[in-house]
Design goal:
With 339 residues, this protein is mainly alpha-helical. It contains 19 helices and 3 strands. Among the domains are: 120 residues, Zinc Finger, Delta Prime, domain 3, CATH 1.20.272; 112 residues, GMP Synthetase, Chain A, domain 3 (2-Layer Sandwich), CATH 3.30.300.
Length: 339
């Protein structure tokens, strides 16, 4: 009766139709009723659930084969399995008494399954239920649902049991209370490398002289840590370094690279990286270059300075190379450097 009501989904007319079908078949057992309705029996769902929880891949695949060979609907079987694990989660958290009215299981089935799931944590059951719900939609869309559910079950069998944080803390407390652990390790003198750490650190902090060659090394190191900033620094058209190395002037044409390096975010990143690399604060100044010919032809080359410079930007070219793309359109919305 419970199986017919569940399959009818609350419809009286559908319930009577299913009852007529079962009566016409002459089914006298639950197994025969399941065969008539094309659904998996509770024992099949239980067997598959236990196989998943015990990581028994062979038995799990055999049960799926039995359902498929008997003419069962794999999508419907997946839905039944999802609701079955939902019932197990409710049963595990509430117990047979409180969960009796919240499950699509008879009291006899609940009493039978409760000892089975007692050795598994509620986290493990919920983990399987969550994976089933995520894989259910893919099985419904798949042209090979049997293969899809087999792959899903294999993944479920390979999942490790989830241990609650409370259990982990309890084990740690028990381990700590059992006696001193590694006491001899704490009584030993500090290892040799710890005593030499300050010397290594002092070497790392030794200020470096700033020259053209060392600045090139600095740009290469920035490319590894911050590719965008490194690409902007590499676009520099000229570098002037004062004799004491405390001031570096980077010359750029009017355009995207100059505007971005003048932003507060990149200025802050540049200060931090130069201080870390050179071991001292270095004043980096971003200057705009403008030749005589360029200044006289600003109006004629306005489109080039905006659109073509964006296209030729090293960052854009790198993105095109990485994504194997092509530039179909360039739109300029504003000029942040306009004064």
């Amino acid at each position: 009766t419970l199986l017919l009501a569940r399959e009818a989904e609350g419809s009286v007319r559908d319930s009577l139709s299913l009852l007529d079908r079962v009566s016409a078949y002459g089914a006298t057992s639950l197994k025969e009723v399941c065969e008539v309705l094309g659904v998996a029996g509770t024992q099949v769902l239980k067997g598959l659930a236990v196989a998943v929880l015990e990581n028994d891949v062979a038995n799990a695949l055999r049960l799926i084969d039995d359902v498929y060979n008997s003419g069962g609907n794999i999508q419907k079987f997946t839905t039944d399995l999802v609701f079955f694990f939902r019932n197990l989660v409710v049963l595990k958290n509430l117990g047979p008494e409180k969960a009796a009215t919240l499950m699509d299981l008879s009291r006899e089935d609940a009493d039978e399954f409760f000892p089975v799931i007692s050795k598994y944590t509620a986290h493990s059951l919920f983990q399987v239920l969550d994976a089933l719900m995520k894989g259910q939609e893919a099985i419904y869309r798949s042209t090979t649902p049997k293969l899809s559910i087999e792959m899903l079950v294999i993944r479920l069998c390979s999942m490790k049991e989830v241990v609650g944080i409370g259990d982990l803390l309890g084990k740690v407390d028990k381990l700590l209370s059992s006696g001193p652990i590694g006491k001899e390790n704490f009584s030993e003198e500090p290892p040799e490398e710890m005593s030499t750490a300050p010397e290594t650190d002092s070497v790392a902090r030794t200020p470096k002289e700033c020259s053209q060659e060392i600045w090139t090394d600095f740009v290469d190191s920035v490319k590894e840590k911050n590719p965008v900033l490194g690409s902007l620094l590499a676009c520099c058209e000229g570098i002037e370094i004062e004799s004491n190395g405390d001031r570096v002037q980077l010359k750029y044409r009017s355009g995207v690279q100059h505007d971005m390096l003048c932003e507060v975010v990149y200025q802050q990143q540049l200060r931090e990286l130069t201080k870390k690399f050179f071991g001292r604060a270095i004043d980096v100044v971003i200057e705009k270059t403008c030749g005589a010919n360029n200044c006289d032809a600003v109006g004629d080359r306005k489109t080039y300075s905006l659109r073509d410079e964006l296209i030729q930007s090293s960052m854009v070219q790198e993105a095109v190379k990485v994504f194997h793309a092509r530039i179909s359109d360039v739109r300029v919305f504003s000029n942040r450097a306009q004064k």
